User: Which sequence fits this backbone?
């Protein structure tokens, strides 16, 4: 007890004997120790944290290593797949190249076939053209070699008789359908209501149709009781226009008509009948045809001029309207008949030439070639030197070239034309004596 106390006293005395500086130093040391302990704890904590971070990093690194390994494995697989696909691609490229080469060969072969096809097509076209040319030549030769006629002489005679009958009936009907002035004769004052120049034109036109002698008879005769002379003039006008339709090559072109007629005359002279007949038929078939209505106007204008010349009791405008409204249908029948006969003798018969016989006015009467329509059988043959007044009915002749003789033809009259003589008409119209 006393020792302890002595020691403590000593300790306390020792401590007490320390200087203030030493104590301060101890305090500082002690503080440093505590600070060092705090720093060590802090560092230990930091180290622990770092270790945890390191472990986490190791885990992350391990995870990434595993992911990298997986990626490397996947990459290896992809490389293997890519190599396989590259191998397949190379095979496909080689196959495509082979196909390209084969396609090139096929294309060249197709082109060769195309070229051959074009060549064959051109050759085929040339063959067709040659065939067409030979066919046309054959048709042309056949057309000229064909001798069979579509119509017989009897057929043509029948058609002409029908036309003559229509002309006669129409002339009679039209003549009986109008009234004429009863004064007759030529009176200086008869044209007081007509324009003199116009009537002169009417007379000129009438004279061209029926002739100057018939014109004078129409002007000087009385027609109000017996219009027979007017009927005869109508027949003369219609036969004249019908003959124009038959004999003309081109009704609308007089100059061309003259040229064709001259050419045909030379062909008829130098070639055989079969050749000239076929040329005529082919040429006529290709010439444009004048419309029936236009031709009918010629006939109706002739009616008007003849009636005015005969002093009909109507003016021109009323007369024209009456003719067209009442007789256009009958005139059209005559025009169609004339056109049909024109085609028949011009295009459908080649073994011979049928010629319609129309005698121009003022030609001398020839009883061996024509008949007087107004003279009895007992009186025929009289005054053979008398000029005819007009043709009232058309006749028909068949003309065939004599083989091997240029310019010689065999002519057969199948139907004699009928004409009117002034003497016969005068006797017919003279008043009967008891």
Assistant:
């Amino acid at each position: 007890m006393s020792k302890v106390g002595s020691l403590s006293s000593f300790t306390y005395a020792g401590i007490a004997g320390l200087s203030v500086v030493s104590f301060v130093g101890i305090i500082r040391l002690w503080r440093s120790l505590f600070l060092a302990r705090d720093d060590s704890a802090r560092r230990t904590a930091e180290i622990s944290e770092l270790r945890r971070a390191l472990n986490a990093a190791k885990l992350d690194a391990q995870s990434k290593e595993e992911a990298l390994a997986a990626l490397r494995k996947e990459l290896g697989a992809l490389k293997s797949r890519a190599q396989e696909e590259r191998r397949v691609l190379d095979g496909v490229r080689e196959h495509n190249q082979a196909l390209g080469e084969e396609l090139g060969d096929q294309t060249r072969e197709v082109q060769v076939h195309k070229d051959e096809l074009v060549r064959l097509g051109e050759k085929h076209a040339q063959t067709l053209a040659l065939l067409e040319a030979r066919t046309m030549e054959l048709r042309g030769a056949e057309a000229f070699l064909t001798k069979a006629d579509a119509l017989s002489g009897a057929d043509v005679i029948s058609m002409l008789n029908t036309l003559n009958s229509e002309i006669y009936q129409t002339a009679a009907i039209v003549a009986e359908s109008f009234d004429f002035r009863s004064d007759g004769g030529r009176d200086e004052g008869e044209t007081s209501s007509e324009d003199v120049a116009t009537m002169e034109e009417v007379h000129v036109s009438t004279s061209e149709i029926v002739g100057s002698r018939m014109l004078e008879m129409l002007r000087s005769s009385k027609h109000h009781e017996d219009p027979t002379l007017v009927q005869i003039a109508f027949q003369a006008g219609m036969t004249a226009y019908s003959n124009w339709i038959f004999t003309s090559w081109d009704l609308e072109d007089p100059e061309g008509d003259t040229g064709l007629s001259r050419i045909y005359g030379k062909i008829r002279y130098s070639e055989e009948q079969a050749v000239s007949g076929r040329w005529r038929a082919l040429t006529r078939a290709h010439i444009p045809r004048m419309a029936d209505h236009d031709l009918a106007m010629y006939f109706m204008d002739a009616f008007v001029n003849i009636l005015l010349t005969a002093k009909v009791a109507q003016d021109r405008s009323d007369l024209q309207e009456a003719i067209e409204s009442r007789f256009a249908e009958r005139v059209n029948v005559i025009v169609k008949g004339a056109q049909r006969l024109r085609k028949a003798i011009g295009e459908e018969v080649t073994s011979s030439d049928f010629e319609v016989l129309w005698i121009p006015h003022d030609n001398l009467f020839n009883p061996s070639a024509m008949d007087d329509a107004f003279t009895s059988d007992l009186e025929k043959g009289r005054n053979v030197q008398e000029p005819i007044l007009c043709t009232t009915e058309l006749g028909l002749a068949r003309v065939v070239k004599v083989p091997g003789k240029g310019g010689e033809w065999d002519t057969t009259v199948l139907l004699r034309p009928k004409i009117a003589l002034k003497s016969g008409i005068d006797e017919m119209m003279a008043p009967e004596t008891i």
Notes: The chain is about 70% helix and 5% strand. The longest strand covers residues 395-401.
